[in-house]
Amino acid sequence: MISSLKKAAGLRNAELRRYVERQILPFVSTPAQYAGGELNQVVKDHAAMRAKVALAFPDTYTMGMSSTGFKILYGLWNEQPDIVCERCFAPWPDMEARMREHGAPLYTLETFTPVSEYDVLAFSVAYEMGFTNMLTMLDLAGIPLKAEARDRSHPIVIMGGHTAFAPEPIADYVDAFCIGEGEELALEVVNKVVELKKLGLPREELLYRLCREVEGVYVPRFYRFEYFPDNSIADVVPLKNRLPFPVKRRTVHDFENAYFPTKQIVPYVETVFERFSIEIMRGCVNGCRFCQAGMITRGQRQRSPEKVIELAKKGFEQTGYDEIGLLSLSSSDYVGITDLARQLNDYFEDRGIGVALPSLRIGTVLATLPKEMSRVRKGGLTIAPEAASERLRNIINKPVRDDHLIAGCLEAFKHGYDHVKLYFMCGLPGENDEDLRAIGRLSDTIALTRTRVGKPPAKVSTSVSSFVPKAGTPFQWAPMLTRDEWRRRQQVIRSSTRVKSVKVKVHEPDCSYLEGLFSRGDRRLGAAIETAWRLGARFDGWDDQLRMDAWGEAFKQHNIEADWYALRERPTTEILPWVCVNDTVSEGFLKRELKRAEKGMVTQTCADADKDPCFICDACERSPLYEKKLEMLAAPLNGLARDAKYAAKNWTFPAGAQKTEAAAGGA
Q: What's the whole-model pTM score?
């Protein structure tokens, strides 16, 4: 029996490919996702390369190949003549079992090269529920799980994406986190790793120089957390001199000319998004108080219509997709979005290519865009009100009006649309049952609006996600609902709709509970993640795979009070686990926004602030404190972390800024 195992171990690339194709892939579901060979994949001679990167996505191929960030990194690294980047994804449980049975290592799709042979293993992680899959991939690759157990023979394990802004739960397993936007940072990190490897430095010294010499790199092993008896964080102590604190977030300022791949891989199997998506804008002007992405990508930058059209034409020619997606956090806030859609449709209409927007903001733009978006095909209209009552929308700082929403849907129905997707949240701060019932009433109203154009009620898909407090947002201190209360509120929503064509979909509370646990957790959760993984936890974001029994046992073994992490409201004086990478908007701005939320006060958008005083979030050069922030971040930390923290809190406003602060509602 034992002699029949480990047959694939030690095989070279071509042999490993043949072995996997004959002995493993015929016996797993959707084998094409593990085979590579797709249109536009990049294959290079490894022997001629200066640097080798394995780009890892800790979820399925269908999810990873729909990730815009993943596509950008793959194209960016491969654009360099002396760097090769190849892909790997988390194997589904049937594939993992077969790989373990045959001793097959985790390999990259392009050349079936074992991941352990690369200089850098780069995880792109946008969702906390991929943590256990990261451990699966490390283990299958033959790389020690714990960062401290690796030596010079192992790849440098880095991680980027939105999850890197709350890195502590997975910190023990990652060598270095990349904080912020990757178009410049990704190249700098790989170049520096290769440069330092050539010097033959010990791994510890290499990582120390990496975080010292590349802005935006956080190496958790160099920061020690200390705790009070009540388990809250007492301090963070740097273990070496001149470490950055906090680590500066990297931002691409010249977004117009930032790299964007047009020769994207075309998958063999169906993925989540079957389109060529162009990132037309980064950042968001609206300041929704629950939205992490909107806060950590400030300020807003957009590509010119000419650049977007150029990318669209090249992308169509090089991929053959029949739909162009205009991607951003709030595409309808793009200046001139209606004219851009018209120009794209003028070019692509005769070619049978549609133009799609992921979500439309409620307002005047919603009433004008459906005509342009329906010229080739009439799909669904996607809108995210997030809350169904005006009171709750004011709390979350999304002050949209029902009459604008209904008018926009009516315009869409006039142009042939028959399906609307609505996105709401459940469990928002200040929410009550009347807010929940309003979700059903609004969904019914939109469905019946189609009857005003002589058609049957529209199909309305109402998706209700669970509010999870996120790092770097005004609601990072807010409490989260218990799972039982989530289920009760979901039932209130389901029972509030009366129109048959309205379908309500809710999120699994167990999954949201774990997401909340890890979105605000600290480094002490790492041991529980590993234990749950060893007990069988995999693909925790998939309802049919989630193993709450494994998680419960893991928390029990490590004496972790999970509710303390997941549910409790934090005092605004508490040191939060992401303090080492908390270079987003200022803490003062977040606290002011939390107070305004409690009063139901709306904060104007950054776009409106062009005419009025800035609200001082410190994310861009318009803030009177921006230069002072840069000065602090430019000075590496000597001594205790608390010195830098308190120095930041004791800033004084420049002359003339007090009026702006008062306008923002601060004290």
A: 0.90
